[in-house]
Design a protein that fits this description.
Layout lengths: L9 H13 L4 E5 L5 H8 L4 E5 L13 H13 L11 H33 L14 H12 L5 H5 L10 H7 L6 H14 L3
Parallel strand pairs: 1-2
Helix pairs in contact: 1-2, 4-8, 5-8
């Protein structure tokens, strides 16, 4: 039985792949613990048939647990065909999933920031979301920028920034914008708007 340890950084994993090739090893079994299996799988999948086992399905007998004993146990189970391989999507699908998860996370973050801005506006008695379906559209952003910059303080002037189908709602928007925006509100909204603009 051959036992060696390799670093988990890329050069170490490449060394592992080369070592397996030298031994004519084309079958590898490993357990899917968290995300730790992914870098190893990514390196070995092009040269070996990798069986990824559900960790709960291959638990060893209770007792002293070490990485070496685990490796021997997994190898023994695999040798006798007792490991059911978990489904691993092709690399292209895995990469797409990563991008999809990241986009979902960003959208959730964006929603959170927008809600924070609307809550801050409510705290300042600004009710534009009552009369605008999208307070962060073109008209909404113009009004928010005007409120944050403090250059325009008259509610009627801010409401006059409305575009398109919002123009008829200027009287209602004027009332909705008649709040008390403090320096604290401005700074808070400005920070959130900057976060929304990060790509």
């Amino acid at each position: 039985m051959y036992i060696r340890e390799f670093p988990t950084v890329l050069p170490g994993l490449v060394e592992l792949s080369d070592w397996l090739a030298e031994l004519d090893c084309t079958e590898v079994a490993m357990e899917s613990t968290g995300v730790y299996w992914q870098p190893i799988f990514n390196v070995l999948e092009s040269t070996c048939s990798v069986t990824l086992a559900n960790a709960s399905h291959i638990k060893n007998l209770p007792g002293r647990k070490t990485d070496k004993k685990d490796a021997q146990w997994i190898a023994e189970l695999h040798r006798w065909g007792l490991i059911s391989s978990s489904f691993v999507a092709p690399r292209e699908i895995r990469e797409l999933r990563d991008l999809t998860r990241y986009r979902k996370k960003l959208k959730g973050y964006e929603t959170s920031e927008r809600n924070r801005i609307l809550k801050t506006l409510e705290d300042a008695n600004i009710k534009i979301s009552t009369f605008m379906s999208d307070a962060f559209g073109k008209s909404g952003r113009l009004m928010l920028d005007a409120l944050v910059n403090g250059e325009v303080t008259d509610p009627e002037q801010v409401a006059d920034l409305a575009k398109g189908h919002l123009r008829p709602k200027i009287p209602e928007l004027t009332l909705a914008l008649n709040g008390r925006v403090t320096l604290h509100h401005r700074k808070f909204i400005q920070r959130s708007l900057e976060h929304l603009e990060v790509p």
